[in-house]
Design a protein that fits this description.
Layout: E1 3-4, H1 7-12, E2 26-27, E3 34-35, E4 38-48, E5 57-58, E6 71-72, E7 77-87, E8 92-98, H2 100-104, E9 107-110, E10 114-115, E11 120-129, E12 135-136, E13 142-150, H3 171-175, H4 183-316
Antiparallel strand pairs: 1-13, 2-7, 3-4, 4-5, 4-7, 4-13, 6-12, 7-11, 8-10, 8-13, 9-11
Length: about 325
Amino acid sequence: MGELIAEAELRDMVCLEDEGSSEHIIFRGSHDCLEGIKYDFRFGGRFLKAVHGEREVTVDQFPPGETSSFAVQPGETVFVLSQERLQLPRDIKAELSHKRKLAHEGVLVMGWFCVDPLYRGVLIFGIHNISSEPFILEPGKKLIAAQFYRLDESEIDPDARAPEPMNSFPRDIVRSIQRFAGASTRAIDRKLIELEAAVAAMREDLRQREEWFDDMKDIVTGLQTSIHDLTGTIQAEREQRLAGEDRLSKAVVSVGERAHSLDTRMKIIYAVSAVIFVVVSGVIIFLMVEGIKSLGSEDSDARAATPQSTTATPANSP
């Protein structure tokens, strides 16, 4: 395991410049990054982000305030280089650990967590954002903590080869950067935008429907009032008609009664008239018969008198 290098000794191993003595193991460092037995490595401003293609970019290439160009979007992974440069001797190794503050911000730091002896170069990390908010990459931001150990003689390999030094992004990471673009998150974002638009359209449709319902409510209320008034008018008319029908019925009954009475009277009149007619007719017939009889008697007398007169005439002639 080796012996942990305490802060007092570690401070003497931090060089603030890019070049120092053989006693230094951390270059371009800062004593403010020492925290007890740990040293916090910082973001140096150089990063690899899918949206910028297969090229290394730096924060100072973008205008002030253009944070979206170097922000780690939700679901995205961006590779960064440390500001510090390591130069480890054969008997010192470094073990890295996450910073709790970054975990609280929803950021995971990916990379190797043991730096072998004899390594020279910067540290490379993958910053993966698992939160729902963009994570702004700021130069000088502390990303990961390191503890340094001095190895025992038994732990030192005299034939060990020095790891490949790195001062920029390896080619394999550059070629694979597009796989870390967080495409699924962007698809979700697009879906969320579409969903927000659909919700806004539904809200507007509901607002219009509410206005339509309000208008219909006013119309229905007006119709109800009109129907109520019309019902009252019809009821009054019905009552008046019923009253009129009662008067008409009474009038018809009265007329019927009068007609019946008149019919009875007419029948009596007709009967009396018939009797009178029969009597008068009988009288007239009687008188006519008597007249005819009288005329017949007179005729008979006249005829009887006429021959006597004729016969007497010859007697008186010479």
